[in-house]
Structure to design on (272 residues):
């Protein structure tokens, strides 16, 4: 009597993650791979940032100086200085890293969603298929919005120098340029909020009714998160981020509510 050998099906033979679950070792190996790819993207972006830093610095420095000059009188001296001999090298190192981090963020985002996606059911994967490109778009939108309002913010801050006649404005080289990069990064990350709310709603973790019921608490959380994300930690910068994020949160709640509506049951049509 021949012996029948039962073959174990391949792990990739089904798209249903509930049918074949990866072992803990496979999950850790996948996580390690994703982290290594993200780190390689950051290092690669750092190298690119080292070479493009002079162009980026010149462009951002011109933006800062032109904004300052519009609010400073002709008699007010504005000058950037180095306080230590090593400051120039450290500034270039930090600026190039910040540029590299911004360049690597789309890749890091793709790696994150690539790690999360296999653990979801087929129905749960549908709303995530467009998450990565929308995430990149929202990051660019947040950075662009920040770029538009930064000149007005600089002029507002510097205008108070005029309240102290005879005062000069001296600051370390690159301080405001580094501030601009941190603000661009903070706004890009902050604008991911509506995407996070939408995904949580589509996955059924948070329902639209819950989001609407606790909108006051969510608004307070947005203002609190904005105060943490903005590098200057002043009320003006916080409002610059919190107000548009609150509006985006409301729009995302509406989007979740509209897309979560159940289709009209056919049996009700027969009763009409």
């Amino acid at each position: 009597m021949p012996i029948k050998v039962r073959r174990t099906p391949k792990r990739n033979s089904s798209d249903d993650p509930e049918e074949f679950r990866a072992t803990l070792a496979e999950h850790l190996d996948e996580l390690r791979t994703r982290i290594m790819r993200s780190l390689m993207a950051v290092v690669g972006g750092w190298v690119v940032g080292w070479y493009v830093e002079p162009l980026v610095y010149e462009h951002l420095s011109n933006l800062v100086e032109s904004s300052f000059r519009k609010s400073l009188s002709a008699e007010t001296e504005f000058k950037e200085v180095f306080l230590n001999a090593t400051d120039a090298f450290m500034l270039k190192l930090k600026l190039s890293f910040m540029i590299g981090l911004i360049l690597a963020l789309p890749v890091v985002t793709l790696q994150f969603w690539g790690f999360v996606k296999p653990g979801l059911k087929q129905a749960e994967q549908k709303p995530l298929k467009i998450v990565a490109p929308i995430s990149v778009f929202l990051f660019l939108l947040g950075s662009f919005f920040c770029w538009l309002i930064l000149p007005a913010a600089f002029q507002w801050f510097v205008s108070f120098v005029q309240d102290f006649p005879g005062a000069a404005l001296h600051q370390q080289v690159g301080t405001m340029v580094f501030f601009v990069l941190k603000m661009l990064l903070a706004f890009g990350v902050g604008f991911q909020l509506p995407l996070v709310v939408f995904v949580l709603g589509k996955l059924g973790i948070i329902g639209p009714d819950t989001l609407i019921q606790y909108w006051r608490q969510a608004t307070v959380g947005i203002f609190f998160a904005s105060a943490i994300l903005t590098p200057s930690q002043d009320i003006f910068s916080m409002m610059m981020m919190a107000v548009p994020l609150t509006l985006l949160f409301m729009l995302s709640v509406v989007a979740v509510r509209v897309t979560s509506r159940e289709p009209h049951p056919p049996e009700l049509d027969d009763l009409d």
Summary: The chain has two domains: 22-139+149-173, 192-259. Residues 22-139+149-173 form one domain.
